[in-house]
Design brief:
Layout (H helix, E strand, L loop, with lengths): L9 H33 L5 E7 L5 E7 L12 E3 L2 E3 L2 H15 L1
Antiparallel strand pairs: 1-2, 3-4
Length: 104
C-alpha cells in the first residue's frame, strides 16, 4: 500500500496565515506603543532663554524665561563677572557700581 502524503487543506493555510498576521500586528502595536511613549517623554523638555534689557531709566535687568513645553527646574545659579564668581547678583551690581565710580 503506497504511503499517501498529507497535504494542507485550504482552511489550514488560511489559519496559519491569519495567525502569522496576528502575531506581526501584535509586534507592530507593541513597538508603536514604545515609540509613542518615548516621543511623549522627549517632548516635555524645558527651553530656557536669557534676556538682557535696559529700561528708560538705564536700569539693567537679566530675565530667564522658559519657552519649552515642560517645567524648568533650576538647581543652582552661578554669577561670574570678569572671571570672578559671586554668590548673589546684588554683589555683582555693587562691584560694577564701584568700578564705575572709580572711573569718574
Amino acid at each position: 500500500m503506497p504511503i499517501r502524503k498529507k497535504s494542507f487543506s485550504t482552511e489550514t493555510i488560511i489559519a496559519i496565515a491569519a495567525t502569522v498576521t496576528s502575531v506581526c500586528a501584535l509586534i507592530v502595536a507593541i513597538y508603536q506603543t514604545k515609540l509613542s511613549r518615548e516621543q511623549q517623554l522627549n517632548s516635555v523638555w524645558p527651553y530656557l532663554i536669557i534676556y538682557e534689557s535696559i529700561d528708560e531709566n538705564q536700569r539693567s535687568s537679566i530675565m530667564i524665561a522658559n519657552h519649552g513645553v515642560g517645567p524648568a527646574i533650576i538647581d543652582s545659579v552661578r554669577v561670574v563677572y570678569k572671571d570672578k564668581p559671586y554668590q548673589l547678583p546684588t554683589q555683582v551690581i555693587s562691584e560694577i557700581s564701584r568700578q564705575l565710580n572709580r572711573g569718574k
